[in-house]
């Protein structure tokens, strides 16, 4: 099944085009000064986060798109009034009004046009699809099935439904659905809570999080026990999403990525530029081997990447399997120092620059640890919904160092999942500040 491997680049590209429109109209109607245009673009970005103007999906109604951009444009015009009032610069009111009208018309026109083009594109090419299954059979699931089958322009491909009821045309039982979802690489699972018990719902939650599938519920009058629920409508069918990860929003992900690039470049230019040659000499003088140590780890979406460090051990065949422990004989003298101060992690800022890691996120584990624990600890795979980090919430909360027992990993995962589900730029800054403080005083478990 091909879902469109370049789909993830579509939203960021659309945002860039929107910013180009905003900056061009600012230049035409308001000011030719780069600082003024920069502030107006910044206002647009900040309002986009507050208004959630880019929370537009394939099932979103056109009326919803228009209302979001209308609200965004009005607030932007008010901010522009305030900006020039504070600057004590005179801009004719008619110029701001013309900017408002032009932006409103152009943004809505091109977004609606694009929305309709994507619908036709999905029908003609059969790409950019989400493959879905339904768990349960009743009037609500039938309505949703009809929506999937009769609305190909939305890009959903219905692959079958599963039920323990004796009904015709079902694909299999609920128990058989799990193998089907894996074998057919299903993207989204829609469960009728009317037909499932709470225990069955919990099983689907754990299954979908472990296998990185999107789980949604067909709303009815049965109480759901989860938090952070979001209600959407597919035609007339109410659909509840179990959880919403902040960084799934490409705009928030873009903000985090820009922050990562700026931070990584600053560290590479002002720290690594002089630390690297100094450490290279010390590492080489003490033991034979490379200056840098690289090792495969699992990253976002469970993709492998090479994680870089300054080499802190003598070359050995156990580095991929056995984590460093206290008084580890493999660790060199300079290695003890750079591990204690976390200097050995600095080359990972190149991983950040390459887009494989983030400054803050769940720490990438040894692949052997991931393979051991991914099926053992509930919600473990949720930590792979975002890029791994050089530092993380678990590490600044006292959960770094060797994994000696299952509870050590459970505590890490608990903090990692909290971070994934509650990300904010403020939280990243707090973690970075706490990391710097911990490193400066020396960490007990850094060995």
Question: Which structural class is indicated by helix and strand composition?
Answer: alpha/beta
Largest sheet: 6 strands, mixed
Proportion in β-strands: 5-15%
List the helices and strands in order.
HHHHEHEHEHEEEHEEHHEHEHHH
- The N- to C-terminal Cα distance equals 45 Å
Counted by DSSP, the helix tally is 14
Describe this structure in words.
The chain is an alpha/beta fold and 447 residues long. The chain is 51% helix and 12% strand. The protein contains 14 helices and ten strands. It has helices at residues 10-29, 34-51, 62-87, 93-125, 139-150, 174-183, 198-210, 250-286, 333-340, 348-353, 367-373, 393-396, 406-421, 425-441; strands at residues 130-135, 156-162, 188-192, 214-218, 230-234, 237-241, 292-298, 304-310, 358-360, 389-391. Strands 2-1-3-4-6-5 form a six-stranded mixed sheet.
Short recap of the structure:
The protein has 447 residues and is α/β, with parallel strands linked by helices.
Features:
447 residues; alpha/beta; 6-stranded mixed beta sheet; two-stranded antiparallel ribbon; 14 helices; 10 strands; 51% helix; flat; disordered N terminus
Secondary-structure topology with pairs:
Elements: H1 10-29, H2 34-51, H3 62-87, H4 93-125, E1 130-135, H5 139-150, E2 156-162, H6 174-183, E3 188-192, H7 198-210, E4 214-218, E5 230-234, E6 237-241, H8 250-286, E7 292-298, E8 304-310, H9 333-340, H10 348-353, E9 358-360, H11 367-373, E10 389-391, H12 393-396, H13 406-421, H14 425-441
Parallel strand pairs: 1-2, 1-3, 3-4, 9-10
Antiparallel strand pairs: 4-6, 5-6, 7-8
